[in-house]
Design a protein that fits this description.
- This protein is of the alpha/beta class.
- The protein has one domain: 3-Layer(aba) Sandwich (Rossmann fold), CATH 3.40.50.300.
- It is 54% helix and 15% strand.
- It is globular and about 50 Å long.
- The two termini are 27 Å apart.
- Bound molecules: ligand Z5A.
- The site of ligand Z5A has 25 residues, from helix 1, helix 5, helix 7 and helix 9.
Length: 221
């Protein structure tokens, strides 16, 4: 499903599965945009404001640690959109309005992929939430695509145990990856697909090349 919402010319999102390498890629984009003399705001989802970060903790903390009941898929969807509604109004729109570039580690495409693809929730419901609570799209979305086992092996090197979503099974992540790929194929104007299975310096170079092409095309005001 391709949304008709306005695409902001200074708004970039990064998407992908666990361990795709979004953090390194974001730093490379920040350096690239700053080289062009732009103010850059880095942010992330779920989160990006104090309240939205509290919602992030509710979404990602394993059920047993936070309440004696499982979080339903529907509640999970509404929580990520509650966080996003705050994030857009408190952080993203003010930054765009003052002329900064915003780079978000995940945005609404993650809800389509995780809650739509992974959890199997109705995407028309997600689209309605997007239209009412979000109201904008990035101008450029970089999808860092990597084999699930490779991404999980990278992420497993971290000290903390898996969060609520990381604890899902491989078939869940297979559906998430497929949903991301379908969204990218349906909207090639907004999405750039990056092979995130390559060594980190090559991934960063590919990402920067995409951003440079995008700047050169004049997509960025
Ligand atoms: N979620 C959702 O369900 N619905 C929503 O609407 C939204 C989010 C917005 C938190 O996101 C979770 O929220 C996420 C989806 C859900 N759950 N999952 N799974 P997050 O972005 O905070 O979590 P994450 O995607 O799991 O983060 P991550 O594993 O840290 O991914 P990353 O940022 O892409 O990876 P990284 O930190 O850059 O790299 C991870 C490790 O791999 C690190 O040690 C790197 O040095 C290494 N790495 C990275 N790239 C390479 C390459 N190319 N080669 C070798 N090693 C590499």
């Amino acid at each position: 499903m391709t949304s008709a919402l306005p695409r902001h010319p200074r708004f970039v999102s990064l998407e992908g599965g666990e361990g795709a390498g979004k953090t390194t890629a974001i730093n490379a984009i920040q350096t690239c945009l700053q080289r062009h003399g732009h103010e850059v705001l880095l942010t992330r989802e779920p989160g990006g404001t104090p309240l939205a970060e509290r919602i992030r903790a509710l979404v990602l903390t394993p059920d047993a640690e936070i309440a004696a009941e499982p979080l339903s898929a529907e509640a999970e969807l509404l929580l990520v959109f509650a966080a996003r509604a705050q994030h857009v109004r408190q952080v993203i729109l003010p930054a765009l309005q003052r002329g900064a570039y915003v780079i978000s580690d995940r945005f609404t495409d993650s809800s389509y992929a995780y809650q739509g693809g992974g959890r199997g929730l109705d995407v028309t419901w997600i689209a309605e939430l997007e239209r009412r609570a979000v109201g904008l799209l990035p101008g450029l979305t970089l999808l860092l695509d990597v084999d699930i086992a490779v991404g999980r092996a990278r992420a497993s090197g971290r000290d903390a145990g898996p969060d609520r979503i990381e604890a899902e099974r491989d078939d869940f992540f297979g559906r998430v990856r497929a949903a991301f790929q379908q969204r990218a194929a349906a909207d090639p104007q907004r999405f750039a697909l990056i092979d995130a299975g390559q060594p980190q310096p090559q991934v960063a170079a590919d990402v920067v090349a995409c951003v440079e092409r995008w700047l050169a095309q004049g997509a960025v005001a």
